[in-house]
Amino acid sequence: MGRLFVISLEGSIYSCKHCRTHLALSDDIISKTFHCKHGKAYLFDNVVNVTVGEREERLMITGMHTVVDIFCVGCGSIVGWKYEAAHEKSQKYKEGKFILERFKVLGPDGSNYLSGQEALVGGSDADEV
């Protein structure tokens, strides 16, 4: 395995809550109105320092989507997912965009979003609103 190169971001940053690897800039947030299994989730235009998992079809509140889970390159924690394809015409704007689950990242001020279900974390079966 080669050397790991991690991109350092400047500005208002969201980072992995486990290892503090930079993931995204707050300027790249498209929407803060998304939800996942464990609470709030944000839609980002761009995310760095992640690897992707296997493509899968996932039924969400807004319909069927093809997604890949995204993992922090620093520690391997799942931090959200990327939309590969949306099956509903009205959802096409999500294609190529990223979701970061708020309770899995630190906010720009270093804050942690705590979900009431955080103790029940088991997987990435996420639903959005």
3D architecture notes:
This protein is mainly beta. The protein has a single domain, classed as Metal Binding Protein, Guanine Nucleotide Exchange Factor, Chain A (Beta Complex). The protein contains no helices and 9 strands. The strands form 2 sheets. Strands 3-4-8-7-6-5 form a 6-stranded antiparallel sheet, with no helix packed on it. It has a 3-stranded antiparallel sheet with strand order 2-1-9, with no helix packed on it. It is globular, with a radius of gyration of 14 Å. The protein starts with 12 loop residues before the first strand and ends in a 23-residue tail after the last strand. Belongs to the yippee family. One of its GO terms (cellular component) is ubiquitin ligase complex.
Give a brief description.
One of its GO terms (cellular component) is ubiquitin ligase complex. This protein has strands at about 15, 20-25, 30-35, 40-45, 50-60, 65-70, 80-85, 100, 105.
Describe the secondary-structure layout.
Elements: E1 13-16, E2 22-25, E3 29-36, E4 39-44, E5 50-60, E6 63-72, E7 78-86, E8 98-101, E9 105-106
Family: Belongs to the yippee family.
Domain Yippee: 12-109
Keywords: Metal-binding, Zinc
Index terms:
disordered C terminus, 3-stranded antiparallel sheet, mainly beta, Metal Binding Protein, Guanine Nucleotide Exchange Factor, Chain A, Yippee_fam, single chain
Q: Which residues form runs of ≥5 with pLDDT under 50?
A: 116-129
Radius of gyration: 14 Å
Main sheet record: 6 strands, antiparallel
How many domains, as an integer? 1
Strand content: 35-45%
CATH architecture: Beta Complex
The total count of helices amounts to 0
Q: Determine the CATH superfamily.
A: Peptide methionine sulfoxide reductase
Cross-sheet strand order for the largest sheet: 3-4-8-7-6-5
**Average pLDDT:** 87
Please identify the structural class as seen in this structure: mainly beta
Helix content: under 10%
SSE pattern: EEEEEEEEE
**Through-space gap between termini:** 39 Å
Number of beta strands: 9
What do we call the CATH topology?
Metal Binding Protein, Guanine Nucleotide Exchange Factor, Chain A
Shape: globular
CATH class: Mainly Beta
